[in-house]
Design a protein that fits this description.
Distance between the termini: 34 Å
Number of strands: 0
CATH superfamily of the largest domain: Hypothetical protein, domain 2
Shape: elongated
Largest sheet: none
CATH architecture of the largest domain: Orthogonal Bundle
Strand content: under 5%
CATH topology of the largest domain: Endonuclease III, domain 1
Length: 213
């Protein structure tokens, strides 16, 4: 590991701790899969509000696989892109039921073969359910990894590969969690709070961003 990378990880530990935090509410692997699909272009807080009632109504993979599309659309409408999400959830749960006997698979290729499941969603499942070290590239990780010079890529798949090379394997999951907290509180997409940031010396954007203040 590079000295620079190690310094950044120490600072993240000091400010955000080393506890693995869950941002989405779930009790079963299939619930996390549904919640993660809903979380695309939506806040975790909103998803948790929706799934609180959703998971009381749909008690199994089979329930989701057999539900009415229009009904599910209305129930998840507030998460945005609800036509696509409802269609993907039903198709995904049908895949899980028919291909894997109702059990969420752990293999990355099997997960990404499910309807509506890309590498980000698959890595969330692998990391949280199967405790397989995984790099989840969401909007925060994408933005901040570029600012911290861990990558120059814009493609989530390429960013994932760069981070896997840059970070120790045992830090992949924790890095995701810390960067989400950092991205929400300080290193925001618009108007980042550079004056409060502990990582300015490592940031490619700091000189021009802070100079405008």
């Amino acid at each position: 590991m590079k000295k620079r990378t190690g310094e950044i990880l120490v600072i993240l530990d000091e400010h955000y701790g080393t506890e693995v935090v869950r941002y989405l509410d779930y009790e079963t692997p299939w619930q996390l899969l549904v919640a993660t699909i809903l979380s695309a272009q939506c806040t975790d807080a909103r998803v948790n509000i929706v799934t609180k009632d959703l998971f009381k109504k749909y008690l199994s993979v089979k329930d989701f696989a057999e539900t009415n599309l229009e009904e599910l659309e209305q129930e998840i409408k507030s998460t945005g892109f609800y036509h696509t999400k409802a269609k993907n959830i039903i198709a995904c749960m049908k895949d899980v039921l028919e291909k894997y006997g109702g059990v969420i698979p752990s293999d990355i290729d099997e997960l990404t073969s499910l309807a509506g499941v890309g590498r980000k969603t698959a890595n969330v499942i692998r990391g949280n359910i199967f405790h397989e070290p995984s790099v989840v590239v969401d909007t925060h990780v994408k933005r901040i990894s570029n600012r911290l010079k861990f990558t120059k890529e814009s493609s989530p798949d390429k960013i994932e590969q760069d981070l896997m090379k840059e970070l120790p394997r045992e830090r992949w999951i924790l890095f995701n969690i810390q960067i989400i907290a950092f991205g929400r509180s300080i290193c925001t997409a618009r108007n980042p709070k550079c004056g409060e940031c502990p990582l300015t010396k490592y940031c490619r954007e700091y000189p021009k961003n802070y100079g405008k203040r």
